[in-house]
Amino acid sequence: MSTAPSHRGQKVARETFSSRKLFILSAIGSAVGLGNIWRFPYVAYENGGGAFLIPYLAALLSAGIPLLFLDYAIGHKFRGSAPLAFRRMSRPAEFLGWWQVLMCFVIAVYYAVIIGWAGMYAWYSTTTAWGDDATSFFTGTFLEVGEAGVSMDFVPQVLWPLIAVWVVTIVILVAGVRKGIGRANAVFMPLLIIMFALLVVSSLFLPGASEGLNAFFTPNWEALGDPTVWAAAYGHIFFSLSIAFGIMVTYSSYLKRKTDLTGSGMVVAFSNSAFEILAGIGVFAAIGFMAVAAGTSVEDSAAGGVGLAFMAFPTIISEAPFGAILGVLFFGSLVFAGLTSLTSIVEVIISAVKDKMGWGRRAAALAVTLPLAVVSILLFGTTTGLHVLDIADAFVNQFGILFGAFVTVVIVAWFARKLPVLSDHLNLYGSIKMRKVWIGLVGIVAPIVLGYISYQQFDAFLSEPYGGYPEWMLNTFGWGMAAGLVIVAILLTLIPWSKRSMLHDDSEYEAIKAHEDQLTGQIPVADSAQKEN
């Protein structure tokens, strides 16, 4: 087994998932997050309805799954957290791993507060505490949103659930990959699927559900001629599959060696897409009910993101038969989907610190999660949390994940030229074989698509100040944060690895590498035998 010295000088083995089933469950748990429930339905509706499924499937097959396999191959072959795996692949590429780790840091601090909101709204659903005006209740009574800026005025009904979310997250992550992440997903994912299936079935029987479904599935074929619709499909796939920000690199590094990588990836990708389409059915059936009840059109009632979850859905809950049950199912689903994703996001950071410093699980988990929790509570437990969240979310998604994915595929494919080696690894451990097609999709199609979308986003954000926020807030929590991630990633790369780190002492990785090099023909058997002697 792999050995790495802990901070006490003891040898500890690299953690692994106990089974392929738990890995798949955890990977699906990471991919199925808040965005599947509140982002996909609205993106699909806004971009051609039923016709959007064509660019969506094209994006899934031509970019989503190939890049998912790229993450799997890097993590599994180089057996490390994102910084360690990229460093082992090519030393100059290490900063890509730290860039992804820092993206996860930013996402984790605001992701937790949304789970806390959902937890409170599950409770509020039992009494429809928002009354007749869910929008005013959310921004006024619940969040107590103040002027744009940063304040230290804490909001108790936001603060305490946020603390609770971090306590649960810390307990899971301190317990480790098998006893923490694996067991949590084994419990949370079945609960999520059952609750969401019940929600969808209940929504389908609401009066007016067919109106919503017609709006969701009626294809607008003209939309297929609009490049922005295709860009939206590709952009959504990157967020949806948890690719290009270190999660799948980290999770695949915890896989046992002889695991079917490509087969597992297919199960994860199509399960994620099935959940998204199910979410679209459930959400638009409910929106159809709301539109009919209010005497408006589905177009006027449709919303996404925070607006859908905390403004539109409470209105539906207030008016629907058995609304309290619908509310508990909906917000409970958000809590479970959010927790499984949050643990995967924070694990990227823990794994990186653990590898770099050579620390044990508990020390690394506490060193990462406690500061994260403090930053999250200070920024998002206050009256200005919503403004900071909106800016940070927009910029880290567009100029962190998307632009970072573009830089990563360009460096891996065209500068490091590692796609043939990674293709060999996928073929060695995958039931679905690939080479030229996969290399072409990752090396040519993905950079073109990601480059185009990144250019679009730079142009849009530079043309008009995002969200009408003050310039200093955009420069601090938007552009400053996005640029700061790159600078800090480079600085972290320059810090020497601890002598106790996995980089310097991983005999299992060295043995596996030598064996695989023989199998893939990268090192002649005779040379390897000479090296061993």
From TrEMBL:
Which residues does UniProt call coiled coil? none
CC annotations in GO: membrane
The record's annotation in SUPFAM superfamilies points to: SNF-like (SSF161070)
For this UniProt record, the keywords arranged alphabetically read as follows:
Membrane, Symport, Transmembrane, Transmembrane helix, Transport
Q: What is its main location?
A: membrane
Task: Cite a single GO MF annotation.
Answer: symporter activity
Q: Where in the cell is it found?
A: Membrane
What InterPro entries does the database record attribute to this sequence? MFS_dom (IPR020846), Na/ntran_symport (IPR000175), SNS_sf (IPR037272)
**CDD domains named among the record's database cross-references:** SLC6sbd_u1
Sequence intervals crossing the membrane: 21-40, 52-74, 95-124, 158-175, 187-209, 229-254, 275-294, 320-353, 365-389, 395-416, 437-456, 476-495
Q: Which residues form the Major facilitator superfamily (MFS) profile domain?
A: 281-533
Family (UniProt):
Belongs to the sodium:neurotransmitter symporter (SNF) (TC 2.A.22) family.
In Swiss-Prot or TrEMBL terms, this protein is called Transporter
Organism this protein belongs to: Zhihengliuella flava
